[in-house]
């Protein structure tokens, strides 16, 4: 992606940050994964609005990071917020919504 494309499209920036965050999570570099994910979340809220699907996705990814570190209470919080946003944007039967719901359900068992 060129710098001109990144400047004109905040969604592209958010997705690039989330992709980098996922890579760091895969390498178990939790602090860097969390920092990148929080940056993506802040950017998405500021540029796209607090109820945009990208915000829900970033919250879900942040929940994954918390879950990977056994920070269950924080993971629940992020998954719960993500579920509300994603459900409003995608509907009840979307695979991403169902995945978040299942993870949230498991954390409450």
Could you give the topology of this structure?
Blueprint: H1 3-8, H2 10-26, H3 30-48, H4 53-68, H5 72-90, H6 95-108
How would you characterize this protein structure?
There is one protein chain. The protein has 109 residues and is an all-alpha fold. It has a single domain (3-108), classed as Tetratricopeptide repeat domain (Serine Threonine Protein Phosphatase 5, Tetratricopeptide repeat). The protein contains six helices and no strands. The chain has helices at residues 3-8, 10-26, 30-48, 53-68, 72-90, 95-108. Helix 2 packs antiparallel against helix 3 (30-48) and helix 4 runs antiparallel to helix 5. The mean pLDDT is 93.
What brief labels describe this structure?
6 helices, 83% helix, mainly alpha, Serine Threonine Protein Phosphatase 5, Tetratricopeptide repeat, 109 residues
Low-confidence stretches: none
Number of helices: 6
Rounded to an integer in angstroms, the radius of gyration calculated over CA atoms is: 14 Å
Let me know the CATH homologous superfamily. Answer: Tetratricopeptide repeat domain
**Count of folded domains:** 1
What is the terminal separation in angstroms? 43 Å
Based on the structure given, which CATH architecture is correct? Answer: Alpha Horseshoe
Percentage of residues in strands: under 5%
Q: In terms of structural class, how would the helical and strand content be classed?
A: mainly alpha
CATH C-level name: Mainly Alpha
Compute the average pLDDT: 93
Which topology does CATH recognise?
Serine Threonine Protein Phosphatase 5, Tetratricopeptide repeat
Q: What helical percentage do the residues reach? A: over 70%
Biggest β-sheet description: none
Shape: globular
User: How many strands?
Assistant: 0
Order of helices and strands: HHHHHH
